[in-house]
Structures are given as structure tokens and as C-alpha cells.
């Protein structure tokens, strides 16, 4: 097996470990009615208030028409509003409503609790090692985006 093949194998193995651990393969994110993708859209808007759909599609690497359906559904449920951009009348700025902010904060709280449960048996030394490993992965992969 070449070094490249070893890396590919290891990343795939990590994904098979990590995704079920955080229940990212479930259709109901954190026991909600939403998929992980639908919840993540709310998080992106929460973190980037006033962003547009093109930004979210690029950031999440998802199909624009799929994203459009998610945005419409969130808008219908009262989680977000779209306002015509002041700089480009063809684009919309997206903002969470109070209801959307509350839902997103609930997801963040539950996600934090879920991760806390996963790492609760780690030693303090393990925290630093884990952070370093995660930072290393991110830095290496971001270099070649």
C-alpha cells in the first residue's frame, strides 16, 4: 500500500469511527426533527449573520437547490428571514429570527453535551493531545484547499 493509499484508508477509517460516534449518520440530529445538514445550515447563519445562500453552499459544499429547499423550510417554520441585499438586489441576506436563534443555541448546547459525554473519561493530558491532533489535521488539509 502506498503512503497516499494509507492516508486514504486511515481517513475513511476515522470517518467510520467518528460519524456514528456523533450520530451524524442519523436522519434526526440530536433527536430533533432535523437532519445534520438542516441543523448545520442554521449554525452557519448563526455564525455568519447576514450571509447569503451562495456563501453557505460554498462553506458546506452542498448543492444550491438542496440548500434552497432547506432555507425555504426554515423560513416557513419561522427560523429565518431573507432580506434583499443592499449591495445586490439579486441576492438575499439571511438572518435567524429569535426562534431560529433559540433552536440553534439548543443544538449547540446538546452537541456540546454529546461531545462532553464522549471525552469525559479522558485525562487532562489527553485534551491537549486531542486538540493538537485536530489542529494538525485541519492545518494540513486547509493548506491545500
Walk me through this protein's architecture.
With 145 residues, the chain is mainly alpha-helical. It has helices at residues 3-21, 36-47, 53-60, 64-76, 98-119, 124-143; strands at residues 80-84, 92-96. It has a single domain (3-142), classed as Arc Repressor Mutant, subunit A. The protein has a two-stranded antiparallel sheet. Helix 2 crosses helix 5 and helix 3 packs across helix 4 (64-76). The radius of gyration is 18 Å and the shape is globular.
Strand-helix topology:
Blueprint (H helix, E strand, L loop, with lengths): L2 H19 L14 H12 L5 H8 L3 H13 L3 E5 L7 E5 L1 H22 L4 H20 L2
Antiparallel strand pairs: 1-2
Shape: globular
Here the CATH topology equals: Arc Repressor Mutant, subunit A
The N- and C-terminal alpha carbons lie at a distance of 25 Å
Q: Describe the largest sheet.
A: 2 strands, antiparallel
Strand and helix order: HHHHEEHH
* Overall mean confidence score, pLDDT: 93
- So how many helices? 6
What's this, in brief?
This protein has 145 residues and is mainly alpha-helical. Helices cover 65% and strands 7% of the residues.
Key structural traits:
145 residues; mainly alpha; Arc Repressor Mutant, subunit A; two-stranded antiparallel ribbon; 6 helices; 2 strands; globular
